[in-house]
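Key idea: predict the complex, not the pieces.
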Amino acid sequence: MKHYKKNLTLLAGLLLATSTYAAKELLNVSYDPTREFYKEYNDWFTKQWKQDTGEDVRIKQSHGGAGKQARSVIDGLAADVVTLALAYDIDAISSRTGKFPSDWQSRLPNGSAPYTSTIVFLVREGNPKGIKDWGDLAKPGIEVITPNPKTSGGARWNFLAAYAWAREAFDGDIAKVEDFVGRVYKNVPVLDSGARGSTTTFVQRGIGDVLLAWENEAFLSLKELGEDSFDIVVPSVSILARPPVTVVDENAKKHGNLKLANAYLEKLYTPFAQRLVAKHFYRPFLPEFADAEDIARFPKVKLITVDEAFGGWQKAQAEHFSDGGTFDRIYTK
Amino acid sequence: MAGNTSTLHGRAAKAVAGKSGPHGSNTPLRYLLIGIALAFLLLFLFMPLASIFAEAFRKGAGAYFESFDDPAAIHAIKLTLIVAAISVPLNAVFGLAGSWAIAKYEFKGKSFLTTLIDLPFAVSPVIAGLIYILMFGAHGWFGPWLNQHDIQIVFAVPGIVLATLFVTFPFVARELIPVMQAQGNDEEYAALTLGASGWQTFRLVTLPNVKWPLFYGVILCNARAMGEFGAVSVVSGHIREMTNTMPLHVEILYNEYNFVAAFATASALALVALFTLALKSFIEWRAASAQKFREGERLPDNTPLHQTS
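Result:
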C-alpha cells in the first residue's frame, strides 16, 4: 500500500511539473514552413527580452497547415500570437471568436506582414520535363504536387497564382481559365493538408515532376537535401504572398502576456529580425537591413497582389475556396 | 482468451505433427505456401521494422542517442508515459468492472453495453478526437462554461488523456469478457455459500481466475495508449514541449528534415511494441501452463493434479 501512495505522489508531482513549471510562456501558433525561422528568432527574442526586462520567457511553437491552425485557435487553442500564411485565416479567427478587432492588419507595418514570399516551381535536377511556366502544368503526363487549398494557406496562394496567370493568358475568358486550372489539379496525385507535407511528398518520397512551393520552402529544400537534386524554376508571373502576424488580444490578456506578445511581434521588424528573415529565404519587408548576398538570391519576378487581382482575401476566399467555389467546381468535375 | 487460443493451437499442432501423412506427398506445394507466407512477412513486416532502425542509426550511435538529448524529445517521452500511466489503470478498472457486469449478471440492455464497449474499435480515431473538440472546444457544448472557469481540456494534457482513454477503452474488457463467460458463476456461488462477502469473492475467486487475461489486456492497452496518433493529433494542438506525445513528435521531426531523430524516436516506439510482444508471448505461455491443471483439482488419492507433472 505504501508503494502505491509513493507512486501516486510521484505521478501527481510529474503532472504538476508539466503543467506549471516555466515562469512565463508565450504560444505562437504558426503555419508550416516557418519552423526554422521562428526557432532561431525565438532564441534571439528570449535573450533580448531577458536583457530588456530581466524576465525569463519560454516561447512555444505549434505548426501545421494555416487553415487547420486557425481552426484550432477558433476551437480554443490558447495562442498568444498567430503567424499564419494569409490574412483570411486570421480574419476567420477574429470574426468567429471576437478575440481581437477586425482591423488587426492595420496594427503593424506592411499590413502586419514583416516578411513576404512568393510561389515558385521546384523541379527535378535538370528539369527533365521542361517546365517553364504555369501553362506547362496543365499538360498531360505532368505530375503536380500542391497541398489542399481547403486546409493550406500556401495552396491557396498557389491556386490564385495559377488563376491569375491563366486570366492574363486567356484574356479573361473565365470558362477557359477554369478549364485550365481544372486540368492543373487533374495532374495532382496527392493533395497534402499542409505545405510541408507536400514538400516531403515531393523531395522525400520522390512523387511528382513539379512542386508548387513557397519560395522559402523551395530554397530550404535545396539547402537541406542538396542543390544537385532539384532546380528552382521561376514562372513569368507569380503572386506576392504576405503572411501576416497578429496578437490574439483576449488570450494574451488572460495569460498576462499582452505586452510580451506585442513586443514579440514588433521585434520582427527590427534590423536583426529582418536579416534573419532573409537568411531563412523570406523576402524581408525592410531589405536594407538584410545581407546583400541573401537578397541577391531572390529571383526577379513579376508579382501581383491579391488586393489588385482578386479584390482582397475575403472576396477571393468566397469566390474560389468556400463550399461550392471555383476549387470545388473544378476539382470534382 | 489468449490462454485458450494458444493451448488450442498447441493441440492442433500436435495433432498435425502426429500424422504428417496427407501433407507428405505434397512437399513442393507446402514449401511454396510457406515460402510465400515468409516472403510476405519479410517484405511487409520485418523490412519496415529493420528500416526504422537502419534509418535511426544511419549517422551512427552518437547521432542516435543525441536525438533523445533534446528538451522537446524528453518532454514528449514524459508526456507519453504520463498519459499511459493515467489511462491504462483507469481502463483496467473500467474494463474489469464492465466485463464483470456483462459476464456474471443478466440485466436489461446488456447486449447494448457490450456493443458500446466495442464502439471505440469501430470509430475512426479522428472522429474520437473530434467529438472531444465538439464537447470541450471553445465553441463546444461545455466550452463557454470551461472558459469561464479557466479550465483547458482540449489542446492540453486532459484532452490527450481523454482521447487516449476513449481509443484504448475496449482492450481490457475485450480480453476479460470471453474468459469470465467461459468460467461461469459456479466458483462465485460456492464462495458465497461458504460465507464469503462480495468483495472477498471478487478478490479471492474472480480476480485470480482472470489475472492473466487481465494482464494481457493491460499490456495491449498500454501499447496502444503510447502509440496512438490520430485521436491525439486532433486534440493536441501540436505545441512543442507541452502537448506533443512521442508519435506526434516523430511526425514533427520528420517534417523538419530531422530524419535521424524522427526514426530514433520511432525506434523507441518500436521497441515498446517488441517488448509488448515478448511480454504477450510470456503471458500466453504462463496462462497455458496455468490452464493445464487448475489449482485445487486432485486425483482420487488426494494428490494435487498440478504436482503430478
